[in-house]
Design goal:
The chain contains no helices and 11 strands. The chain is mainly beta. Strands 2, 4, 5, 6, 9, 10 and 11 form a 7-stranded mixed sheet that branches. Strand 7 and strand 8 form a beta hairpin. The termini are far apart. 34% of the residues are buried.
């Protein structure tokens, strides 16, 4: 599975962005997909995850209620809709894929494939 993230950019605080992650490979629909982010000088952290069917989603407390993860398996794409952005949301955002029984959704080591990252900048 190869992942290509896009959609980052510069937005004012309170604004919105939608990130996309396009996947190659016919097995996309069997993978749960996560979004992580990494700010300068900080560790990469979990943001959101969606199960292979889309039936389950989980969010970091810091984004709950503001971000929405969803997927379109027919398009091999997962999205992260980010609303009410805050300066502290600024980071490089990465999409990642974890196979069935790959481990905890919340651990980086559970994810076998990673996209290249897309920069999100939020001005105050």
């Amino acid at each position: 599975v190869q992942l290509q993230a896009s959609g980052g950019g510069l937005v004012q605080a309170g604004g919105s962005l939608r990130l996309s992650c396009a996947a190659s490979g016919r097995t996309f629909s069997t993978y749960s997909m996560g979004w992580f982010r990494q700010a300068p000088g900080k560790e990469r952290e979990f943001v959101a995850v969606i199960s292979w069917s889309g039936g389950r989603t989980y969010y970091a407390d810091s984004v709950e209620g503001r971000f929405t993860i969803f997927r379109e398996n027919a398009k091999n794409t997962v999205y992260l809709q980010m609303n009410s952005l805050k300066p502290e949301d600024a980071a490089v955002y990465y999409c990642a894929a974890t196979p069935p029984n790959g481990g905890s959704y919340f651990r980086l080591s559970s994810y076998a494939y990673w996209g290249q990252g897309t920069q999100v900048t939020v001005s105050s």
